[in-house]
Amino acid sequence: MTTATHDVSLRYARVGRKLRGQPTSDGAGVRLTRVIGGAELPDLDPFLLLDEFGTDRAEDYIAGFPEHPHRGFETVTYMLDGRMRHKDNHGNEGVLVPGSVQWMTAGRGLVHSEMPEQHEGRMRGFQLWVNLPARDKMTDPRYQEFAPERIPLLQPADGVAVKVIAGRVDGTDGPIAQPATDPVYLDIALDAGAQWQYALPEGHNAFVYVYEGAAAIGDGVDAREVEAQELAVLAGGEVLKLRAGAADTRAILVAGRPLREPVARYGPFVMNTKQEVMQAFVDFQEGKF
Ligand code: FE2
To answer: 0.90 cut: is pTM over it?
Structure first.
């Protein structure tokens, strides 16, 4: 027999697993923390990578990410601090400012650079890679880029502020559209002790990455503390319950519909088969990106 109390607790997502990112460097020597995409968590379908970059030291970011290709997936850059210039071989160029997001669908391929537009000061943000289904891997490249003022900022509860980059909160939609994975991407700020609940889309894989403070995730005895620089993969429930600890807390919540397709991955190319990855190398070398 199941008690009513038990039924209620089942509704809440719990922390299925918790992990810390690994320090690494990428591009021309940018120091960053790899949270998804390393040995511990190679991917979380449809997410292929999550990097946090955050430093006050220019030497950690100044070399940037010079020209490199991408094919078969999307790169999502969300800036918290600092300015980054983006430029690709199709003539797209722009500067990402604090609070802006760039959701780039690489599709069949492009070559781009991402270079700091500053010589000092803080640079902080996230890069997320989102896989594309087989039918969209060779689509035309596309950008969804939004300045901070285009990203809805809601106050859904006392002491809680949420920026809706993708997905829906209390009837407000974020600006990003991607039907293939139907993503949710929220930047959540909780005052110390503040609490918020959010209904996750059914069947999505979801994670919370705390980047300041600490939060308890889950309900009652199932709640687990997640500290800054820890990732919680959510499991077993459709409502996220988040409660900040003794400090003001910030976290991102990201969720997406899993693609459940084979992943053949090599560096900046993510396809379904090894042969398609080899074709990507050939096409890139022949200048077809
Ligand atoms: Fe890139």
So the answer is: yes
